Amino acid sequence: MKPHPHRQKPNTVTFQLPTYHDFWNPNLRGLHQSEREAYQLIVEFIEQEQMSTADKQNFLRAVEVLSGAVHAEGNGNMNDYYPKATLAKKIETLILEESTEILDSSVRQQAMLCVVALSQVNPPFHLSEILDLVSAGISSVFSLPLIMPSLDRRESASLYLQMTQALDDMLQALVMDNMDPNMLILENFLEIILPWLTQSDKVHEQTRALGTISRLLRFVCNFPTLLHMELFSMTGKLIGILGLFCLNPNHEISLGASEALHYLSKILVLQRSVRQKTVNILRNLQKNFRGEWFTSMQNVTLFFRKYLTPVERADVIMVTMEGMTSTSRDDIYAASNMLEMILKYSIPEIGKVPEIIQYIYFHMNSITETTAQKTIKKTLYLLSQSYTDEVILTLFKIEDQSQKEVCKPWEILASFPKGCEVIMKHLLQRLVPQQPPQDREPSQRAEISPLIATRAIHELLLESSEQMEVQTLFSPLFVALLLRASFLMVAGNAEMTQDQQHVTEWVDPVSSTVKALKTLMLSSGYGNLESEIEKLGGWELLVDPERHYDGVTVVARSLVMKNCWHNRPIFGLLMRMLQDPNCTNHFTALVFLMELLQCPDVAAIVDDFVTHILANWFNCKEPATVKLLLQMTEVFTKHKNLERRLHILQPQVLNCCYSSNGDIVMETFLVLKHLVEDLTWQYSSSFLIQLTFMLEPFFEEESEHLRLLAFQIYGSLLAKVKRRVLVFPLRHQILNVIVFLVLHLQDVNLDVAQTCQVALCNTAALLRWSKLREVFTKEDVFTITGALARSCKPWTWKR
């Protein structure tokens, strides 16, 4: 048993006091003869170190008489006659000098009643004086051996009852501050008394402590006003301790704890409940007064949820967890039962979460009892669901500061599949932080950064043994981690500063994110996919600032090549994200979609709504994004379902021809060239006809490359035209373009001239101009021009 902090009794008492009577001459005229004699007796005995029992009793009686005289004066002050602090110290010494082996005199109770008398006069005791007197009284009374009522020990039993009453009177007198109890003083009293309950292995000491607490609380609950109730910080700890002792196998201890818990509950009801409900609640409490342990636990659960503050609830949890580390099986069983009951339903708001997590981390291995282990793991699990950020921050802080791993919290969290899923979903939200509403007040609780969320996801994935649970979240985790890596590539490592205290090995946010992404694939059963990406150099490319998007392409292409089952869910998530025009990771999403659209399963689910989302991104101001979208348009020619939706993108593509950005215009014509080669007249006739008209201004473009592309596109387009579709206005436009083709037969760019000559021949073949076709094969412009002039008769054009 641990030694009591207030039990040690010196072998001898040394008491040195200044001789006040040498320089102090109080006015005793107002005192009666008996009161003057009491004063003289005090002066005579105050300096004596060795006093008989009779002398002690006479001295204490004299102090009571003098206190009564001062009290009768109304505004009297004990210091006018003798220093009150000196008297209190002498009384404390007399109490401590009493034997703790046998109760054979009334000095104790007389001394404590003398303290009561002194407490009624000015000046008030200092807090230190009060606590010294209480500590002495508690230690002297509680240390006495067990005194059982019997015929031969009737006198001792009676003396003990008187002494107990005197102790109660002293405590009740000293807890008062003027006319109301002071809860801060009560808190100090409890700190003195509780070690006798929690650290003692003697039943009679524990029952004395419980009885004293119970009677003191009963006294306090009689007052409507309690001073400093809002500062009273022992409520949670006291409820926890009393609740545990309600489950004690010793009936006397259990009953004492139940009584004390009843009066503490009554105080909380009177101070914290709505007045209209107070009467009914108190009536129900009274019905269950001295009830069985289960009733007490129901009360604990009720008050834990409804009447305690978050910090007080945390104190209750801490007390129960401390009970689980006990060497007593009864204590462990009681603590497990109590914690299980108070956390049985939805967990209310709890404070001191980091402290609770630290206690669990460092004491997990010392809890060996099976039920207790399950309860403590469940506590960690419940807290991680309700306070994910605080739990994760605390775990990382502990692990980063510890030299070795004490326990495996991530393994515990991952052992609850459904709970792990909830935590993962929360971490997903932290990976992609949302802007809080402007009217929302800032949270007082800690929030983890995306980097810490990434690290936590990695730890949980490493420990997860439920592949199916991981696969359920594979798509959102994959998308979030990939986009996070891209964001860090663009935004840099700016957030490292705020996370430095929580980061050790995870010093490179991009590499850390890619590491988590690889672990996700391995945990989801995609080991072959992870190896394929490694083989293609995708992981290295992802962390390369200059080739990051090449890495994104490799990862996406690998998913398509391996026909990953999650391709469609990933596609759905990316499209949902792209609905937001302010999406910060749109470029990464589009790069990924570029490859994903080449998966037949994905291409088959593309509809008009999805295609319109992509079309809207053509309005983006970033040239790189527009160029990427232009390239993506080519993919729409590779699948029948996509080709049916190409008409939604075509207006946007044609608009890009008139962009002020020369690179975009050039990219557009390259894309148009490929589109015309791949498109069929069946699905794209309208677009092809429109393109025929749109190309005309670009035949005179100064850029040779662009001019060449315009003629090449026209040539490819012309090759797709069949005579059966050659009607107005397409026929009319083809005839008009002949002029441009002829004029550019002498273009400075030989490729342009050659392209125009081929186009002229194809035009003649389409129009069935057999004679002109022979002329067009010649390179002489004047010959061709003359032949055309001779053929320009009305009937020729009409035909």
Q: Could you explain the architecture of this structure?
A:
This protein has 799 residues and is an all-alpha fold. It contains 41 helices and 2 strands. A two-stranded antiparallel ribbon has the order 1-2. It is rod-shaped, with a radius of gyration of 45 Å. Residues 1-23, 493-506 and 794-799 have low confidence and may be disordered. It holds the Pfam family HEAT_Maestro_2. One of its GO terms (cellular component) is cytoplasm.
Structure described in brief:
It comes from Heterocephalus glaber. The protein is an all-alpha fold.
Tell me the layout of helices and strands.
Blueprint: H1 33-45, H2 53-72, H3 84-97, H4 107-119, H5 127-142, H6 154-174, E1 176-177, E2 180-181, H7 183-198, H8 203-220, H9 235-246, H10 251-272, H11 275-287, H12 293-306, H13 310-324, H14 329-342, H15 353-363, H16 370-386, H17 388-401, H18 409-414, H19 417-431, H20 450-463, H21 467-472, H22 474-491, H23 496-499, H24 509-523, H25 527-535, H26 538-542, H27 548-561, H28 567-578, H29 586-596, H30 600-603, H31 608-616, H32 623-635, H33 640-655, H34 662-678, H35 681-694, H36 704-720, H37 730-743, H38 750-767, H39 770-776, H40 781-791, H41 794-798
Antiparallel strand pairs: 1-2
Helix pairs in contact: 1-2, 2-4, 3-4, 3-5, 4-6, 5-6, 5-7, 6-8, 7-8, 8-10, 9-10, 9-12, 9-13, 10-11, 10-12, 13-14, 13-15, 14-16, 15-17, 16-17, 16-19, 19-20, 20-24, 22-24, 22-28, 24-25, 27-29, 28-29, 29-32, 31-33, 32-34, 33-35, 34-36, 36-38, 37-38, 38-39
Keywords: Repeat
Domain Maestro/Maestro-like HEAT-repeats: 612-781
Domain Maestro-like HEAT-repeats: 204-423
